[in-house]
Amino acid sequence: MSQQNVETVKAVIDAVNREDWDAAFQDAAPGFELDMSRGLGLMKGVYGLDQVRPLLAEFAGHWEAVWIELHEFIEAGDLLVVPQTTHGQGRDGIEVVSRPTLVWTIRDGAIERVCMYQERQDALEAVGLSEQQKSS
Question: Domain range spanning residue 69?
Fold first, then answer.
């Protein structure tokens, strides 16, 4: 597994958790895309780099706190499948948890694309893997 790609993802999520948008996107390729087309909320769509920063800042602004936990890194060629848990704490103390899986495309140190899947199995299938292959 490309340790550099794993470290890149960890650095991005650390920056997102701090709401440091400049650091979060410092390794984004000029043609970067965030594919949230499988989303269930307001952020459903595909967004370019110029759209992502204000979108994420606005999303974070609706919460008292938002943070992401990464669970594992599954390599699939030049793709990295990363199951995560996203925690949101509302202003009235209500907590919301989601468990999407993101597929990261990173080439030559540049993040080209991040695609969100609601279900881990869907993400694995999208990159040509299954739970059985991943386990072996």
Answer: 3-135
How many domains does the chain divide into? 1
Nearest Cα to Cα of residue 83 among 116, 113, 106: 116
Cross-strand partners of 83: 101
Residues 89-121: pLDDT tens digits? 988 888 999 999 999 999 999 999 999 999 999
Q: Which residues 6+ apart lie within 8 Å of 39 measured at CB?
A: 45, 116, 118
Distance of alpha carbon 123 from the chain centroid: 12
Determine contact, residues 121/115, Cβ cutoff 8 Å. no
d(CA 61, CA 125) in angstroms, rounded, equals 33
pTM score of the predicted model: 0.90
